Amino acid sequence: MVTMVLTKNLRSLLKQFKVKVIYQELLDIHKEAEDLLEKKGNAYRIYYTKEMIKEYTRNLLIEAKWANERYVPTVEEHMSVTLVTCAYAMIISKCYVHGDDSVTEETFKWVSTYPPIVKASCLILRLMDDIATHKEEQERNHVASSVECYMKLFGVSEEQTHEIFSRQVEDNWKIINQKSFMSTDVSRSLLVPPTNLARVCDVLYTRGDDYNHAGKEMINYYIEALLVNRMTI
C-alpha cells in the first residue's frame, strides 16, 4: 500500500516537473522572439500573441470547471468557449509573428475578433474533432463535447447530430472559399494559415481520429512521406 502511494506521488511530481519544463520552454521561446522582434520594431506582435494565449488559458479553466462539475453547457455556451480552446485562432496569430511587411498591428487585431474565415476554420476543427473523438472522451472525465450538447438541447440522436455537423462543416468550407476570393479585410497571403489549418482537419479526422490514433494511411501516406521517405526534386 505504501509503495502504491509513493509511486502515485512520484508520478504526480514527475508530471508537475514536465509541465514546468514545458512552460519554461514556452516562456524562453517567446522571450527570444520578443528580443528579435524588438530590434525590428515589431514587438507588438508578441504582445497580441500573448493576449491570445491568455484568452486561451482562461477558457481552458472554464472547460475544466465544466468537466469537474459534470456540467453540460448549451450549444451556444460550448461554442463560445471551445472555439477559443480549439486553439486555431491562437495558432493563426502565431503564424504571423515573423511575417513580412504585409503583417501589421491591424492583422493581429483582425484575428482576435474571429473574422468569418478564422471562425470558419475554428468551427471546422471543433465539429470534425468532436465527431471523431467524443465517444472516447466521454469515457474519461472530459468536458462534454458539442455532440453531447447538441443531442441534449435538441433531443436528437448521435447519428443525426453527426449528419448536421457534417453539413455545417461543408457550410463553413463555403465561407472559407468565398472569403479566400473576395476578402478585402487583409491581404490574400494572410488568408493562407486559416485555410491550411482547415485542410489539416480533413487529414486528421475524415477517417476517424488520426490525431490520437494514427491509422495505416496516416502513417504510410502522411507521416512517413513527410519525415522518413526521401523527396525527389
From TrEMBL:
Q: Where is the Terpene synthase metal-binding domain?
A: 18-174
InterPro entries named among the record's database cross-references: Isoprenoid_synthase_dom_sf, Terpene_synthase-like, Terpene_synthase_metal-bd
Q: Does the keyword Protein biosynthesis apply?
A: no
Q: Which UniProt keywords apply?
A: Lyase, Metal-binding
Which cofactor(s) are needed, names only? Answer: Mg(2+)
GO terms in the biological process aspect are: terpenoid biosynthetic process
> Which superkingdom heads the taxonomic lineage of this protein's source?
Eukaryota
Keyword Metal-binding in record? yes
Give one GO molecular function term: terpene synthase activity
Pfam families assigned: Terpene_synth_C
Q: What is this protein called?
A: Terpene synthase metal-binding domain-containing protein
